[in-house]
């Protein structure tokens, strides 16, 4: 799938923008502060109804404007097209429209327009909290396993009920036992989906990483969130007193982690920043391959400042891997010359110059 048309209004410093990107490679170039990253942010809003640069929406919405809006036309993998629209206001309210109908959740957006983000903060996937790696893992499972979302919603509901009981003690014994059973059932289902996904991801990741950098001792392992040799029901019973003292459930898939190690060490403690970027790129490209296998639609990749921290060899390797995915890519850079010779001659490449919030398409080779 790919975006064939994008319209942006009142996002940061961007003037009202409407442009028609290439279905393959799109290079957005311009000086720092020109609005390149804001354009990627607008596409991110269209796919997830939130920013990747700020938890708060106020900085995203243009000064003195009440709201921001992004519209997009998506060419789907089945040859059909879909129209998406997202509006966010300063009070945090948002409206999502898909083909003229109000959508109930951001999951519908994510299903229609699956996005992968690679940006200067991507190293947080390695050195950040387990929650970031769970989100990465579950994003992939969501797109390849249709039953995941229902099980995940059941898990969240059971966790809320159990944690409320732990804090307030307002459930009778029978209700408590029922919610514990529901929590265990949903947890086992989530764990099975995650394990299956990791099993499929690891060989694709290893092959992709090998084309970028040699890190023979780097390994992926999955911690499910409780002792691998014990049933969750047994763990919950044995930790009940401590859970009550803490006021929340400590064991379960909400504590799962994707562990990335180099030998016996946490990879983030050993790898350089450039190596970390390559590992994260390999993980996200491997996810794209799994989505291509699972459904006809493909990811749209948002790559902010691709040349940073990478030498010419690794830039070319990364461009070739993105190209081989056969999906739509948006890449920002200051100097487009660094990215012009990284593509095959038959790959469509569109150039867009971003300057003071204006976006204009240029001919490759005519960059200022």
UniProtKB/TrEMBL annotation:
One of its GO terms (cellular component) is cytoplasm. Residues 22-355 form the AAA+ ATPase domain. The keyword Electron transport does not apply. GO terms for molecular function: ATP binding; single-stranded DNA binding. SMART domains: AAA. It is found in: Cytoplasm. Gene3D superfamilies: P-loop containing nucleotide triphosphate hydrolases (3.40.50.300), RecF/RecN/SMC, N-terminal domain (1.20.1050.90). InterPro entries: AAA+_ATPase, DNA-binding_RecF, DNA-binding_RecF_CS, P-loop_NTPase, RecF/RecN/SMC_N, RecF_2. ATP binds at residues 30-37. The keyword Plastid does not apply. Keywords: ATP-binding, Cytoplasm, DNA damage, DNA repair, DNA replication, DNA-binding, Nucleotide-binding, SOS response. GO terms for biological process: DNA replication; DNA synthesis involved in DNA repair; double-strand break repair; SOS response. Coiled coil: none annotated. The RecF protein is involved in DNA metabolism; it is required for DNA replication and normal SOS inducibility. RecF binds preferentially to single-stranded, linear DNA. It also seems to bind ATP. Belongs to the RecF family. This is DNA replication and repair protein RecF. It comes from Pseudomonas knackmussii (strain DSM 6978 / CCUG 54928 / LMG 23759 / B13). The gene is recF.
């Amino acid at each position: 799938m790919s975006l064939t048309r994008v319209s942006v209004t009142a996002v940061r410093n961007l003037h009202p923008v409407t442009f028609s990107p290439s279905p393959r490679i799109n290079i957005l170039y311009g000086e720092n502060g020109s609005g390149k990253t804001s354009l990627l942010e607008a596409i991110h809003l269209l796919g997830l109804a939130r920013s990747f640069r700020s938890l708060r929406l106020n900085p995203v919405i243009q000064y003195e404007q009440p709201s921001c809006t992004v519209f997009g036309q998506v060419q789907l993998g089945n040859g059909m097209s879909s129209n998406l629209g997202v509006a966010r206001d300063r009070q945090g309210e948002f409206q999502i429209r898909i083909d003229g109908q109000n959508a109930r959740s951001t999951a519908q957006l994510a299903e229609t327009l699956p996005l992968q983000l690679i940006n200067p903060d991507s190293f947080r996937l390695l050195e950040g909290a387990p929650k970031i790696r769970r989100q990465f893992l579950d994003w992939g499972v969501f797109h390849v396993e249709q039953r995941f979302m229902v099980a995940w919603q059941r898990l969240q509901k059971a966790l809320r009920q159990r944690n409320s009981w732990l804090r307030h003690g307002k459930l009778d014994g029978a209700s408590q036992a029922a919610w514990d059973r529901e929590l265990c059932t949903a947890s086992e289902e989530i764990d099975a989906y995650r394990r299956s996904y990791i099993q499929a991801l690891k060989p694709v990741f290893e092959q992709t990483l090998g084309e970028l950098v040699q890190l023979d001792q780097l390994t992926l392992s999955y911690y499910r969130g409780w002792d691998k040799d014990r049933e969750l029901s047994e763990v919950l019973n044995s930790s009940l007193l401590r859970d009550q003292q803490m006021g929340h459930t400590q064991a379960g898939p909400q504590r799962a982690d994707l562990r990335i190690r180099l030998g016996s060490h946490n990879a983030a403690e050993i790898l350089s920043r450039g190596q970390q970027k390559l590992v994260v790129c390999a993980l996200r490209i491997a996810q794209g391959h799994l989505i291509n296998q699972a459904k006809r639609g493909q990811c749209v990749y948002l790559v902010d400042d691709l040349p940073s921290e990478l030498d010419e060899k690794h830039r070319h390797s990364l461009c070739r891997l993105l190209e081989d995915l056969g999906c739509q890519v948006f890449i920002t850079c200051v100097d487009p010359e660094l990215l012009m010779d990284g593509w095959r001659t038959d790959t469509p490449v569109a150039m867009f110059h971003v300057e003071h919030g204006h976006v204009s398409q240029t001919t490759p080779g005519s960059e200022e």
